[in-house]
């Protein structure tokens, strides 16, 4: 594998994203080709990674893809890069609830044999930062913490005190960052606003992070740390490919609303023989010759009025679905297929209404397919992730998509699978293949 580092922290809010994005952008400006990765099911941070690196942002998630695919997916996403920067999730050792750190940043670092740079928020501590660093070094000796970046340092005097506390640990301080209001990126109910919704602000924030890191971090020391990663080989993941003459059009919703899907999703669809056409449901019509539709996740509840205003597209989708159009919809896609969302008319494909609530639904899920469709066989077990504050109210009896530990979820028809659950299709490559096969059959 290529030179690599993992950017981690003792807890959320320490500044991992600022440092990771700043490192990616600063190293790119220094002439390095950088591959960016995010641990876990996050869709938003990889968007900022893409702005910083000029390459697609990607996720590494042992829970959703399986441990065995983390190395191959990393190798695939690192192809052509000089080094890789992996941004962690939550605290270094925080993984799926009820496990011993499964799918944590530390877990991924071990799978990649990658050195770790620890970002510590020093805003409310001095010498005690040293105890934090020492504790994280000692907690798991299989994790190699090669440096510390001190974030939110208030003054030269404060910096000296913190450095004095860290010195006895033997872990080098690779950088010191002061507080910087330019790094504030607008947020909303589920975290940062995706980069593709506020491109100018995202680019400004990335530029500010890059400059902050350039001034405060020893980039040569970071490069040396990345190059200290031991040799560790993995055969790059490759989407299973089919050779076909006729490539059916699979329309993939994109734009500001439907920005939540993994980079590998379109790679899998293309390899399965699809001509993937991305369209923006806010402004576009259904692509010509659409033979199947994939509606990913995003924030439709914040664009409900604008989505509803594209009346022609709503009619096109409803008519195409009534005519048998194969559709896979995840989270935002489920809401778009409902009759309405917060009082705004949607496509009306499904007998349900959707509304925003104050309750956050968040976490990994083990799900079992409740019935057989074009994409899943009844009884199929998968791992997915939920992340939303909406709910749907059913207006008629429906066939659910999944059996979950807490009940049923989603709606299916023979040619539609719509649910809140996000899957990493690298673990279920037959699903995109089946969607493309259904598209091919419809296109005949």
From TrEMBL:
Reaction equation(s) it catalyzes: hydrogenobyrinate + 2 L-glutamine + 2 ATP + 2 H2O = hydrogenobyrinate a,c-diamide + 2 L-glutamate + 2 ADP + 2 phosphate + 2 H(+)
Domain CobB/CobQ-like glutamine amidotransferase: 250-427
CobQ/CobB/MinD/ParA nucleotide binding domain location: 5-190
GO molecular function, one term: cobyrinic acid a,c-diamide synthase activity
Pfam families the UniProt entry points to: CbiA, GATase_3
Active site, UniProt feature: 331 (nucleophile)
GO biological process, alphabetically ordered: cobalamin biosynthetic process
Record pathway: Cofactor biosynthesis; adenosylcobalamin biosynthesis; cob(II)yrinate a,c-diamide from precorrin-2 (aerobic route): step 9/10
Family: Belongs to the CobB/CbiA family.
Free-text note regarding domains: Comprises of two domains. The C-terminal domain contains the binding site for glutamine and catalyzes the hydrolysis of this substrate to glutamate and ammonia. The N-terminal domain is anticipated to bind ATP and hydrogenobyrinate and catalyzes the ultimate synthesis of the diamide product. The ammonia produced via the glutaminase domain is probably translocated to the adjacent domain via a molecular tunnel, where it reacts with an activated intermediate.
Name the UniProt record assigns to this protein: Hydrogenobyrinate a,c-diamide synthase
The organism of origin for this protein: Kribbella speibonae
Organism classification: Bacteria, Bacillati, Actinomycetota, Actinomycetes, Propionibacteriales
Gene encoding the protein: cobB
